[in-house]
Amino acid sequence: MNEYVGTTSRRAKVSAVAAPPDAGDLMAVVARYQSPLLRYVGQVLGRIDHEAEDIVQESFIRLHRQVSGRGAGSVKNLTTWLFRVAHNLTIDTVRRRSRRKRLPETTVDPAVLSAEEAVNELDALGEVLRREARQVALRELSQLDEQQRQVVLLRIIQGMTLREVAEVLGVSVSLVNYRLNQGLAELSQRLRKAGVV
Fold it and tell me: 3, 69, 147, 188: most buried, per Cβ within 10 A?
């Protein structure tokens, strides 16, 4: 009985959360979509930094221009519209990054730790170990074919439906389903080899 009640209240909460705000209410749109967009863009770029924040901000600016110029009705599905814009801007950024010549990373020589610093390092070790599996999974996800990675991120991480993912990427639902299955199979294999699964 308790499981049923919890499921019912969870469904009610999900459906209450699932209703997107009006495209013309920019403050509500930003409040609802800023974090999910930033997570998606950050995962595609490999980190959340100023570039990821700029992409999300530009997505909202483009939404404002669209609504101001053509009205709120011109954005039929707000979620897929925003993710598609953010996706396209992110892909452009990835392409620009690949054209740039990368500078070698500099390493800092390890310093001798004091006793207090050593204790702090040991305390941080537990956190590092907890994050290790997550980092391995994200690293292996980043090694997937770009098209598979995008589908996995949108479907699994962002929780979009296959149809929404298809709209964001501009491909058919069957192609999304194929890429998702291939990507998950590849990711599962990689995680097994890495000892995570």
Answer: 147
pLDDT tens for 146-171 read 898 888 888 887 888 889 899 989 99
Distance separating alpha carbons of residues 53 and 41, to the nearest angstrom: 8
What is the total count of domains within the chain? 2
Residue 91 and residue 161 in one domain: no
Cα-based angle 107, 109, 113 (whole degrees, multiple of 5)? 130
Q: Let me know: does 138 contact 187? Beta carbons within 8 Å.
A: no
DSSP assigned state of 73: G
Q: Looking at the structure, tell me whether residues 30 and 71 fall in a common domain.
A: yes
* Residue 74 DSSP class: G
- Kindly state whether residues 28 and 91 are assigned to the same domain: yes
Name the residue range of residue 144's domain: 129-192
Express each pLDDT in 1-55 by its tens digit: 444 444 444 444 444 445 667 777 788 888 988 999 999 998 888 888 888 899 9
Residue 196 DSSP symbol: -
